[in-house]
Design goal:
By secondary structure, the protein is an alpha/beta fold. It has helices at about 5-10, 15-25, 40-55, 65-80, 95-105, 120-130, 150-155, 180-190, 250-260, 270-280, 285-305, 330-340, 365-380; strands at about 30, 90-95, 115-120, 135-140, 160-165, 195-200, 225-230, 245, 310, 320, 345, 345, 360. The longest helix has 20 residues, at about 285-305. Bound molecules: pyridoxal-5'-phosphate.
Length: about 375
C-alpha cells in the first residue's frame, strides 16, 4: 500500500506505546496519559444527556452553535479584557488538538518554520510536520525552571519563521511562564510579524494561588494570537472532544473553512454540554483541589526516593522526574519499570531529545493508587 510522505514522517508516540504495553499487561498502574480520572460536573452531564434526548444530535454550523460561541466570546472578554465577536472570532473544534491542527494548517505553508519550546507536547512537532512546516526546537533547562530564555528565541528566528507555539502552563513540566517572558515573546512576535499560537488548556489547573499569564494580556497581541482552549482538562471531559480557538477573524474564517472539510463540526451533544459548563457557574473547585493534593503527595514521594528528583509543578497534573542518577536512559527506565513493577510512565525523550534523563508521570489516579505507584517506583530504583 502506498503511504504518503506526510503520514510517514509521523513518529509513533512513545506515550501511546507505553499506554498500549500497559494495557496488554493488565494489572498496571498507568501513569502515561493526561486523561483525568474525575467525573465531569453533574450539570454538564445532564445538559448533554438532555440534548441527546431532545434529538439535538445533528450537525451544527462548521464553527459551532452560535450560542456556544457567544458563551466563549463572553468568557474570552472576561478573561483577557478584550472584545470578541462570537460570529467571527471563535471556532469550536474537536478538542484543543483540532484547534491546534486547524490553526497550523491555516497559517503555515510548506517550509515555514514554527518555534516550539522543549520539553514540548509531542503533537506540536507532528502537526507542524503534517502541515509541511519545519519545527524549530528551543530547549529549556531544569536549572532555569524550564522557562524560556527570550534571547535564545531571537537567535533562532529566520526569514522563514511564521509562528511561535506558547504552551503555558506547560505539559510536561507544569511550568507557568512568567509575565515578563511572555512580554518578551510578544515583543519579538510583533517586531517580526509572527503569529502566536497560545495553548492554554491547563490554565485552570494552577496551584498554591499561582497566577496564569497569557500573551493576550498585551493589547497589541490580540490580532496576532490564536488562543487554544478546551473542556478536556478544566472540566475533566477529554472524551467529549470539545475545544475552541479565538483569534483574528481572517484566521478563524480560514480555520472554519478547513473545519468544514475535516470534521464538519464539533460533536453537537458536547457543544450543549459546553454551553452549560461555561455559562453556568459550574463548580470545578473539586478538580483543582483533588489534583493539588495528589501533586503534593507525588512531589514529596519522588523527592524522598533515592536517585530521583523533580521540581514542584506549579500547574497541570504532570510531574517531570529527573532520573539521571539512576544511570538509565528514559526509555530503558520506563520499560524496566513497567516490566518489573507494572507501573507505566512516559520516557522523557518523547518531549525532546534533550530530555532522556527524565520521565513524565501523570497523576490522574486516586491518591491510594498513586501511593502504591510511588512504593513500586522506589522499589524499582532501590533494586537497580
Ligand atoms: N495542548 C496540550 C499541551 C495538551 O497536553 C493537550 C492534551 O493532552 C491538548 C492541547 C489537547 O487536548 P484536547 O484535544 O483533549 O482538548
Amino acid at each position: 500500500m502506498r503511504i504518503s510522505r506526510k503520514a510517514n514522517v509521523i513518529e509513533p508516540s512513545l506515550t501511546r506505546d507505553l499506554f498500549n504495553r500497559a494495557l496488554r499487561l493488565g494489572d498496571v498502574i498507568n501513569l502515561t496519559l493526561g486523561d483525568p480520572d474525575l467525573p465531569p460536573p453533574q450539570n454538564v452531564r445532564d445538559a448533554a444527556c438532555t440534548a441527546i434526548q431532545n434529538g439535538k444530535t445533528r450537525y451544527s454550523a462548521n464553527a459551532g452553535l452560535l450560542e456556544l460561541r457567544q458563551v466563549i466570546a463572553e468568557l474570552f472578554t472576561r478573561e483577557y479584557g478584550s472584545p470578541c465577536n462570537p460570529a467571527e472570532d471563535v471556532v469550536t473544534t474537536v478538542g484543543g488538538m483540532e484547534a491546534l491542527y486547524l490553526a497550523l494548517s491555516s497559517s503555515i505553508d510548506p517550509g515555514d518554520e514554527v518555534i516550539i519550546f522543549a520539553p514540548y507536547y509531542v503533537n506540536y512537532v507532528q502537526m507542524v510536520r503534517m502541515n509541511g512546516g519545519v519545527p524549530v526546537i528551543i530547549e529549556t533547562n531544569e536549572s532555569d525552571g524550564f522557562v524560556i530564555e527570550p534571547a535564545t528565541l531571537e537567535s533562532r528566528l529566520t526569514r522563514k519563521t511564521a509562528a511561535i507555539i506558547v504552551n503555558t502552563p506547560c505539559n510536561p513540566t507544569g511550568t507557568i511562564l512568567p509575565r515578563a517572558v511572555l512580554k518578551e515573546i510578544s515583543r519579538v512576535a510583533k517586531e517580526r510579524d509572527l503569529l502566536v499560537i497560545s495553548d492554554e488548556v491547563y490554565k485552570s489547573l494552577v496551584y498554591d494561588g499561582a497566577e496564569h499569564f497569557s500573551v493576550l494580556e498585551f493589547p497589541e497581541m490580540r490580532d496576532r494570537t490564536i488562543l487554544v482552549d478546551s473542556l478536556s482538562k478544566k472540566f475533566a471531559m477529554t472524551g467529549w472532544r470539545l475545544g475552541w480557538a479565538v483569534g483574528p477573524k481572517d484566521l478563524v474564517a480560514a480555520m472554519t473553512k478547513m473545519q468544514e472539510n475535516v470534521a464538519a463540526c464539533a460533536p453537537l451533544p458536547s457543544q450543549y454540554g459546553a454551553i452549560e459548563a461555561l455559562k453556568a457557574n459550574t463548580d470545578i473547585a473539586y478538580i483543582r483541589k483533588t489534583f493539588a493534593k495528589r501533586r503534593d503527595l507525588i512531589f514529596q514521594r519522588i523527592n524522598e526516593c533515592p536517585r530521583l528528583s523533580a521540581l514542584k509543578p506549579a500547574a497541570t497534573f504532570y510531574i517531570f522526574v529527573n532520573i539521571r542518577e539512576t544511570g538509565l536512559k528514559s526509555l530503558d527506565f520506563a520499560l524496566k519499570l513497567l516490566e518489573s513493577q507494572h507501573v507505566a510512565v512516559v520516557p522523557g525523550v518523547t518531549y525532546g531529545k534533550a530530555y532522556d534523563d527524565y520521565v513524565r508521570i501523570a497523576f490522574t489516579h486516586d491518591i491510594s493508587v498513586l501511593s502504591e505507584a510511588c512504593i513500586r517506583i522506589r522499589r524499582f530504583v532501590e533494586a537497580l
